[in-house]
Design goal:
The chain has no helices and seven strands. It has about 110 residues and is mostly beta strands. Strands 1, 2, 3, 4, 5, 6 and 7 form a seven-stranded antiparallel beta sheet that branches.
């Protein structure tokens, strides 16, 4: 799911101001795959995925001194949060590997 807006404003003849905003969100509960690798089956489970993202930018463009000076300026803000835990189960001769991508930890 996502939303966005794009606003433009011309306060003066030679000045344009613009604001662009966007928000998106995504979720997935469970995804499981079973693969055969080197004659053995391996299970890959990905669960509890969630993601949020927000961005906003403010820009201005214009000219001055009878169009001899042209300028452009702006600021940009971006934030993203989410979790995508990855669980891989190996054959019983191995262990289970858990990677939490938010914190970079292995257990």
């Amino acid at each position: 799911m996502g939303l966005g807006s794009d606003l433009e404003w011309h306060p003066l003849t030679h000045l344009e101001a613009k604001s662009i905003s966007a928000y998106s969100r995504g979720e997935r509960v469970l995804q499981s795959r079973r693969r055969r690798i080197a004659g053995r089956y391996h299970t890959h489970v990905n669960y509890d995925y969630h993601h949020r993202q927000f961005s906003r930018s403010f820009n201005s463009n214009g000219s001055a001194l009878e169009d001899r000076l042209k300028f452009s300026t702006g600021v940009y803000y971006f934030v993203e949060t989410g979790s995508d835990p990855l669980l891989v189960t190996f054959p019983s001769t191995f262990a289970t590997l858990y990677i939490d991508k938010d914190h970079g930890r292995q257990q």
